[in-house]
Amino acid sequence: MKVCIHRGTKEIGGTCVEIESQGQRLVLDVGLPLDAPDPDAFPLHPIRGFEAPDPSLLGVVISHPHQDHYGLAHRLPAETTFLIGKAAEAILEAAALFSPTGLKLKNVRHLADRTPLVLGPFTITPFLVDHSAYDAYAVLVEADGKRLFYSGDLRAHGRKSSLFEKLVGNPPKNVDVLLMEGTCIGRDDQSFPTEDDLVPRLADIFEQTKGMPLVWCSGQNIDRIVTIFKACLRANRQFIVDMYAAEILRATGNQRLPQADWNGIRVFLPASQKWRIKNEGAFDVAKPYYPYRIYPEKLGEAASRSVMLFRPSMVRDVEDAGCLKDGCVICSVWPGYVAGEGNRQFVEWVQRRGLPLHHCHTSGHASVADLRRLRNAFADAITVPVHLEDRGRFATLFNKVELHEDREWWSI
To answer: Which of 103-108's residues contact partners 24+ apart within 8 Å by CB, and which partners?
Structure first.
């Protein structure tokens, strides 16, 4: 079995790994780099089967629905076979109406926890993991008597932390190579609060805010949406989600997650999402939410008893609705996004409006301490880092490390 990390040996995001056995190939993730300005202009990796169909490319695994792992998938030939979780596929399809980052796939085989799939010489066994993306998987790939375990992106402090404990407590045996993410290495060596730790922090901010807290959070961060809803219950406030987020929650197929018809939840339709629904004629998507809608003219009077899921694209909506008096903004995203040039105008807007700015977030990736636990669970394996910036520090933290370069082929 031969392996090539096309991208990811020195950066976070844009991950793409090609595996070859007996003249046939499998790809793990086809991500868009975080700093790529245009997903349609970014060069595809030089992989046979990416520009035009090639029968030796048996499939492309999408480990989870984050753009830095699937962002180039829409440019692959329609005949490409994709392997992805059922809920992850549904989330990306639901997002396609509201966002250019959505994705509709044609030829799909679904990943399911610890259920092997066979493609030619490859046996692929997915392991459901705890991550900020819903329906995320690590993957065991077997071929030629060798075993590679790809961690994908994972953590141990989210709402599915038991999955991490299950993995380190009962890992697959006889793994030759552990291809392990290292996002937080060199960036943040500390431990992180759990999602449950954030609930009282958020509830306290909600209770101290006279107006409406606007919580900036990804509509696809299901764990965080659950956290916000739990905090709303503590603070006795209704939770207003936009229709995009409501569709993502519906698409999971998990009725234990907050849904539009739950008590204490209302659905708001921002102007940009309304335009997309009209432009696409997708009125069947909006219709089920009519009984649960809250309209712009009602936001002002509801502000003191509500919390709104929010993104910078909704600035005009909340201004026009007149619901900002005595409110605040809570940043529940990676701090790098807040500090980035792309959101400078939004931060300036917050300052101009005199809105208090709070930060309440936890990482979507494993801490160094938890990465050590994962490494120790595969003690006999060679460890190869991916999805990280500081691989020099990675080599000092773990034993039996092999460093490889982007586009370098190596054998197991």
So the answer is: 103/70, 103/73, 103/74, 105/73, 106/78, 107/78, 107/79, 107/80, 107/81, 107/82, 108/81, 108/82, 108/83, 108/84
Q: Which domain holds residue 285?
A: 195-359
52, 118: one domain = yes
Residues 168 and 237 in one domain: no
Residues 317, 258, single domain; the answer is: yes
Give the burial string for 103-114 (b: 16+ CB within 10 Å, else e): bebeeeebbeee
Residue-wise pLDDT tens digits, 143-193 = 999 999 999 999 999 999 999 999 999 999 999 999 999 999 987 667 899
Q: Are 207 and 177 in contact (CB under 8 A)?
A: no
Nearest-10 Cα torsion for 294, 311, 350, 326: 30
Element holding 125 (H helix, E strand): strand 122-129
**Per-residue pLDDT tens over the stretch 76-134:** 999 999 999 999 999 999 999 999 889 999 999 999 999 999 999 999 999 999 999 99
**Residue 21: which residues within 8 A CB-CB, separation 6 or more?**
1, 2, 120, 121, 122, 143, 144
Residues 111 and 126 in one domain: yes
Q: Are residues 250 and 131 in the same domain?
A: no
Q: What is the DSSP string of 297-346?
A: HHHHHHGGGEEEEE-GGGHHHHHHHT--TT-EEEE-S-HHHHHSGGGHHH
| Measured distance CA(158)–CA(41) in Å, rounded | 35
Following DSSP, what letter does each residue of 44-82 receive, concatenated?
PPS-TTTSS--TTEEEEE--SS-HHHHTTGGGS-TT-EE
Q: Measured between alpha carbons, how far is 360 from 339 in angstroms, rounded to an integer?
A: 15
d(CA 55, CA 83): 16
- For position 113, which CATH number holds? 3.60.15.10
Cα radius of gyration (the chain): 22
Number of domains in the chain: 2
